[in-house]
Specification:
The protein has 671 residues and is of the alpha/beta class. It folds into four domains: 160 residues, Beta-Lactamase (2-Layer Sandwich); 42 residues; 152 residues, Alpha-Beta Plaits (2-Layer Sandwich); 244 residues, EAL domain (TIM Barrel, Alpha-Beta Barrel). The chain has 21 helices and 21 strands. Strands 12-13-15-16-17-18-19-20 form an eight-stranded mixed beta barrel, surrounded by five helices. A five-stranded mixed sheet has the order 6-7-5-10-11, with helices on both faces. β19, α20 and β20 form a beta-alpha-beta unit. The longest helix is centred in the N-terminal third of the chain and has 53 residues. The termini are far apart. The N terminus and C terminus are likely disordered. Pfam families: EAL, GGDEF. Keywords: Membrane, Transmembrane, Transmembrane helix.
């Protein structure tokens, strides 16, 4: 298998390690050969020293008997540790005196190596002289290879350990040095090069490298940075000429088209929309003709600054030419929001301008095109926004219009409803109606649902008209707080005046449900009216939990622990699955009226929901019971509760109290 390295540092470390290891092995081999030669010389010197010592002892001995002298010399030489065996043969008598140490049956690589290396030095033979005439004996010495092998092993082990430690230290040291002076600078340069952008290369010049201030690398860096600076200057000039308006320095049509295309890509990926505003200054030709082009240019510069201030960081302002500007705004996601933004633009543009001694009153017409409703490419969006601008001009100066007239009318209606709804909340022009929940088996009232109504003079506005507007504008949270407070106030009144107080179900919008302050505000309101939390049931739709099931579970668990009941409204009409239903700690399922109105003929979904609720031990409430045949089917299939026009329409509070609540009985004092 071919070895691969992921970086130059690893390659460098590997090569350094191999080189140092080979060098250490060579040194170890040389050291070992040196030790062997040293041991051979030492062994030879010891033998010669022993012979000389024995000869001196023989000459100095007073013994005339060579036999006794031989025994004495034998003992003297045999006591040496490096002697394995010794024998002395007398020349006169031929008698041999010998002594042998026990021979160890030692085997192993070091013993075999010692035998091979010292095969010519394992024994030696010398003649012993008592005087300078004839030798009197022959001395045979055999050396102990065990001692020699132990010496070799000890030298080799010590040398190997020191070599290994030196190898590791040297490898680490060289690796660090090479990394510091070679690979780290290259890594720093690589990272710096990655940060260079074609648009602004000068903003990411290559940094100076430590320890390379005056060498070949520093000169390369200097030359490269000079090239980047020159390239940046040329790029800036070309881009400014190609994409910037020379008068206002705003993006021109070319850059606007690029920006729109980028916005289309981003919005397509994120499933979002954006708005394109086409702005034409009214009566600009009169200013140019009467005051001159110089003041006309200053006028355009002032308008450009106004537009940039209004848009801020939330969009892009471009000049299309002459007195026409365009704005790409990312924030307006809906028609009312786009219309409100257009109104803000016109309001800011209309503020008087002072140029020299002239007081000018600017005005503008604005056309709006929305992606993707009004176009899927930049050219279509610009063209449609321009058409809408001309449509706005036909309405008079200082107007705005959507590309589609029907969209314009709808947006204006939404804005009007939003403004009126805000005033209605502030002026308390809202009220709660109550529709009873009936126990289908007995016909008794077991609860009620609070439904908001908006009174505008003698006219009652349908929730279907203002609830969607409230959700789009964010007023739905304020509206929800009003309903909660009004419900608690009503329950407090009923607790004080009636014996039987039903629980009330409150519809909570998804945006309000996921508000971090929702549960605490609900608990605070209930506590301030000294109510039992079980009297309030929170109804949520499937949109409240479909995007973040874990958050929904956490909120519902807080509600349940605080004593509130929780139900899922309009079950079956959204995207919820049984897996969600199994983990949500709810109390009640409400069958949507769309599945009730088809009973008993189309009962597949309704029967499934009833059966599902019974299996999961949930209370089932059917909405929209308007006919007796629907009631009979629901009773037959075990649906517990129901509400609908068959029992009662939603009633004003006073009428509901008179029809369904009993007056509190007087308690007599018994003496």
């Amino acid at each position: 298998m071919k070895l691969r390295f992921s970086s130059l540092t690893l390659k460098q470390t590997f090569l350094v390690s191999i080189t140092v290891f080979c060098f250490a092995v060579a040194l170890l081999f040389i050291e070992f050969i040196s030790v062997v030669h040293t041991e051979k010389r030492h062994l030879k010197q010891q033998g010669e020293t022993l012979i000389h010592t024995l000869e001196q002892s023989a000459k100095a001995s007073s013994l005339n008997d060579n036999t006794l002298l031989a025994q004495q010399l034998l003992k003297q030489s045999f006591d040496l540790p490096w002697i394995q065996s010794v024998s002395i043969e007398l020349r006169e008598t031929g008698r041999i005196f010998s002594a042998n140490k026990p021979l160890d049956a030692e085997t192993g690589i070091w013993h075999d190596l010692a035998q091979w290396l010292f095969q010519n030095q394992q024994h030696s033979t010398r003649l012993l002289y008592r005087d300078n005439s004839q030798p009197f004996a022959r001395l045979n010495l055999h050396y102990d290879l065990k001692k020699i092998s132990q010496t070799l092993q000890r030298h080799f082990t010590r040398t190997f350990i020191f070599s290994l430690i030196g190898t590791l230290v040297l490898t680490v040291l060289l690796t660090c040095v090479f990394h510091l002076f070679l690979t780290k600078p290259m890594l720093i340069l690589s990272q710096a090069i990655d940060k260079i952008t074609p648009d602004t290369p000068k903003d990411n010049l290559l940094p100076r490298i430590p320890f390379h201030n005056n060498n070949e690398l520093s000169r390369v860096l200097t030359k490269f940075n000079q090239i980047l600076i020159q390239f940046d200057m040329a790029q800036l000039k070309l881009r400014k000429m190609a994409t910037k308006d020379p008068l206002t320095s705003l993006p021109n049509r070319v850059l606007l088209l690029e920006t729109i295309n980028l916005s289309i890509q981003r919005s397509s990926q994120q499933k979002r929309s954006f708005a394109l505003f086409y702005i034409d200054l009214d009566r600009f030709k009169n200013i140019n003709d009467s005051l001159g082009h110089q003041l006309g240019d200053r006028y355009l510069l002032r308008i450009a600054r106004v537009l940039k201030r209004v848009v801020g960081e939330k969009g892009t302002v471009a000049r299309l030419g002459g007195d026409e500007f365009a704005i790409i705004a990312n924030d307006p996601q809906t028609l009312p929001q786009a219309g409100e933004f257009a109104q803000t633009l016109i309001k800011e543009i209309k503020k008087p301008l002072f140029l020299n001694e002239h007081k000018l009153h600017p005005n503008a017409s604005v056309g709006i095109a929305l992606y993707p409703d009004d176009g899927h490419n930049a050219d279509d969006l610009i063209r449609h926004a321009e058409i809408a601008m001309y449509s706005a001009k036909k309405q008079g100066l200082g107007n705005w219009a959507f590309f589609n007239k029907k969209m314009t009318e709808k947006a204006i209606a939404h804005l009007r409803i939003e403004a009126n709804l805000y005033n209605a909340i502030r002026n308390d022009n809202l009220s709660l109606f109550f529709q009873p929940k009936i126990e289908l088996a007995t016909g008794k009232m077991k609860g009620a649902e609070a439904l908001i109504r908006w009174h505008q003079g003698d006219k009652v506005i349908s929730p279907g008209e203002f609830i969607p507007v409230a959700e789009e504008s964010g007023l739905i949270v304020t509206l929800g707080k009003w309903v909660i407070n009004k419900t608690c106030e009503t329950l407090r009144k009923w607790c004080d005046e009636f014996n039987q107080v039903p629980s009330i179900a409150i519809n909570i919008a998804a945006k309000h449900f996921i508000d971090p302050k929702f549960v605490e505000q609900l608990k605070s309101c209930v506590s301030s009216f000294h109510l039992d939390p079980s009297l309030i049931e929170i109804e949520i739709t499937e949109s409240s939990f479909i995007h973040d099931i874990q958050l929904a579970i956490a909120v519902i668990e807080q509600l349940r622990k605080s004593g509130f009941k929780v139900s899922i409204d309009d079950f079956g009409t959204g995207y919820s699955s049984l897996s969600y239903l199994k983990v949500l700690p709810i109390n009640t399922l409400k069958i949507d009226r769309a599945f009730v109105e088809g009973l008993p003929e189309n009962d597949a979904i309704a029967s499934t929901i009833v059966m599902l609720g019974q299996q999961m031990d949930l209370e089932i409430v059917a909405e929209g019971i308007d006919e007796a045949k629907q009631l009979k089917w629901l009773q037959a299939h075990g649906c517990a509760l129901g509400q609908g026009y068959l029992f009662s329409r939603p009633l004003p509070q006073e009428e509901f109290e008179n029809q369904y609540l009993e007056p509190e009985q007087t308690v007599l004092e018994i003496e």
